[in-house]
Amino acid sequence: MKVVEDDKVGVVMVHSDSQWLTCDVTTLEDGSKIRVSFVYGLNSPLGRKALWDYLEQQKTPNNTIPWAILGDFNAILSSSDRHGGDDQWHSHMDDFPSCIDNSELIHVQTTGLQLGIMGSMLMPRSSDGWTGLLATKLS
């Protein structure tokens, strides 16, 4: 399904689900392509399992083109990524780091202001969290 095409790029939706939207973006000048997945992970660990499975399954189909994954995974890689709340590391917290490793993804460091939810307000937070994470496939 073609989503957008202008004089510079074409965007085609590859797959979508409640937690992700994956598109191929192709430059019309030279035909180079990148795959981009936009993610918003569900709040429950059980609900995010489908997201982790999808990312791991996409490792092989995406090994020939660059793949960027952007969004809010609603998960952390380590306890140092947490800001407030429960400081215990529960077994379900291993799911996200395992997915990143199994999918051969890397964390591209972000800089600048990031946002997090405090109560019902969107508030600035430090840049060491995972909101706004960009992960790309290793080449």
UniProtKB/TrEMBL annotation:
SUPFAM superfamilies: DNase I-like. It comes from the Eukaryota. InterPro entries: Endo/exonu/phosph_ase_sf. Gene3D superfamilies: Endonuclease/exonuclease/phosphatase (3.60.10.10). This is Endonuclease/exonuclease/phosphatase domain-containing protein.
